[in-house]
């Protein structure tokens, strides 16, 4: 798992380097991109109201 | 007779011959799912078929902010579209199912070539296309909006998401980009 910082350009968050093409999951959490790659444990999926 | 022979040379997009001899066929190995065939018209290399240019392999999730955020950047090779070519994108999003607005955008530079909003949905599709109007620098999208983007040079297609409520989540689950 790695993180990539985000920068605000023209009112849009953008990664400071290119996001990897082969990531299993990329999560932008409001401040940075968290990159999950093969072998990384994925975070729990969000549970929506209609699923409860 | 096999279609692929020693007479069809492999090149990458970057090192393909600068002179596109009339009738010469080459395979560009780094464009398309497993390469693509291009034929010279005496001036330019022309795609011989539609190609799947890009397929998202993972997923991209957005939460924690109401600021517009880049989810995906797809570099497009200059000249890939061709004079009458079309970029055709189909994507699929999962969303928090509530009344808060979620906004999806596709951008090239300062141009927003497609946008859509979603409320009260847990999934939505986001599909759009951009057509070169017999020119590398004049386009129209599927909403009949005109653009003047120079597609003869490399550019980025950027997919962004924006939440009205930072507690919500927006997930880009699939995206395929074709060059037609």
Word description of this protein:
The complex is a heterodimer of chains A (52) and B (180). Chain A is mainly beta and 52 residues long. Chain A has no helices and 4 strands. Chain A has a 4-stranded antiparallel β-sheet, with no helix packed on it. The radius of gyration of chain A is 13 Å and the shape is flat. Chain B has 2 domains: 9-47, no CATH class; 51-179, Jelly Rolls (Sandwich). The radius of gyration of chain B is 19 Å and the shape is elongated. The two termini of chain B are 27 Å apart. The chains are: A mainly beta (52), B mainly beta (180). At the A-B interface, β2 and β3 of A face β6 and β7 of B. β3 of chain A pairs parallel with β6 (59-63) of chain B.
Q: Taking Cα atoms only, what radius of gyration of chain B do you get, to the nearest Å?
A: 19 Å
Main CATH class of the largest domain in chain B: Mainly Beta
Mean pLDDT across all amino acids of chain A: 89
For the biggest β-sheet of chain A, the strand order reads: 2-1-4-3
Figure out the total of helices of chain B.
Answer: 0
Dominant shape of chain A: flat
Q: What's the count of strands of chain A?
A: 4
**Overall pLDDT of chain B:** 95
Q: Please tell me what the overall shape of chain B is.
A: elongated
Percent strand of chain A: 35-45%
Examine the secondary-structure arrangement and name the CATH architecture of the largest domain in chain B: Sandwich
The major β-sheet of chain B equals:
7 strands, antiparallel
- Helix-strand pattern of chain A: EEEE
Low-confidence stretches of chain A: none
What percentage of residues of chain A falls in helices of 4 or more residues? Answer: under 10%
User: What kind of sheet is the major sheet of chain A?
Assistant: 4 strands, antiparallel
Compute the separation of the termini of chain B in Å: 27 Å
Order of helices and strands of chain B: EEEEEEEEEEEEEEE
Low-pLDDT residue spans of chain B: none
Count helical runs of chain A.
0
């Amino acid at each position: 798992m790695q993180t990539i910082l985000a920068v605000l350009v023209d009112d849009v968050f953008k990664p400071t380097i290119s996001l990897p093409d082969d990531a299993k999951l990329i999560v932008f959490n409001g401040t940075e991109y968290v990159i999950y790659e093969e072998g990384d444990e994925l975070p729990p999926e969000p549970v929506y109201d209609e699923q409860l | 007779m096999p279609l692929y022979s020693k007479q069809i040379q492999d090149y990458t997009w970057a090192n393909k011959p600068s002179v596109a001899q009339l009738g010469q066929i080459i395979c560009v190995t780094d464009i398309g799912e497993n390469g693509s065939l291009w034929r010279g018209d005496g001036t330019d290399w022309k795609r011989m078929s539609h190609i799947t240019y890009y397929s998202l392999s993972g997923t991209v999730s957005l939460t924690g902010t109401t600021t517009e955020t880049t989810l995906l950047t797809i570099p497009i090779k200059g000249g890939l579209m061709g004079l009458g070519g079309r970029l055709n994108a189909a994507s699929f999003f999962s969303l928090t199912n509530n009344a808060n607005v979620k906004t999806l955008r596709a951008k090239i530079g300062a141009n927003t070539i497609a946008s859509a909003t979603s409320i009260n949905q847990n999934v939505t599709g986001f599909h759009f296309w951009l057509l070169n109007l017999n020119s590398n620098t004049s386009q129209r999208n599927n909403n009949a909006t005109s653009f003047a983007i120079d597609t003869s040079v490399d550019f980025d297609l950027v997919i962004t998401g924006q939440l009205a409520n930072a507690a919500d989540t927006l997930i880009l689950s699939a995206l395929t980009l074709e060059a037609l």
